[in-house]
Amino acid sequence: MKKTVYAVLGLLMLCGSAMAQPKSAGDEAALKALEEKWDAASMKGDSAALGAILADTFISTSTEGKVRAKAELLAEMKSGDIKYQNAKVDDMKVYLYGDTGIVSGRWKGKFVQKGKTVDTVERFTDTFIRQNGQWRCVASQASTIK
What whole-number distance in Å separates Cα of residue 71 and Cα of residue 68? Predict the structure, then answer.
């Protein structure tokens, strides 16, 4: 009888701890701060700061459906082919799944890309993973709000 009671209590504890994994306020704040650092790095043309946010395997899918890797994105910034005049995220929501975080929100930006001025409002979804204790973005996708 005691063994059965202990077994049931053990199972309840395991189930309870598996279900009771609340969103970490620290992780949520960290991911929101990374989104803001991303904008600040873009505004400054700081490819080193942006490179620290992006994982080596990062891919970006633009509003036009173009897929770019981290190296392409950083090279465009370093070359001056893209220059941001304004960049701001808002309406962010963070969803945490262990060492994976999803951030969705709205991005308003104005930039010059290869001589063409773009003024846009977009919805984005960024996927982050925690690597060696640091959050890194592995994927970003955006859709234009019309």
Answer: 8
Q: What is the DSSP letter of 8?
A: H
**What predicted TM-score, i.e. pTM, was given to this entire model?**
0.81
Please report whether residue 28 resides in a domain.
Answer: yes
Q: Are 22 and 94 in contact (CB under 8 A)?
A: no
Q: Which residues, 6 or more positions from 120, have their beta carbon under 8 angstroms from its beta carbon?
A: 63, 108, 109, 110, 144
DSSP state of 125: E
Give strand pairing partners of 34.
none
Q: What local confidence, expressed as pLDDT, does residue 25 receive?
A: 85
Buried b (16+ CB within 10 A) or exposed e, 106-115: ebebebeeee
- Residue 65, domain member (yes or no): yes
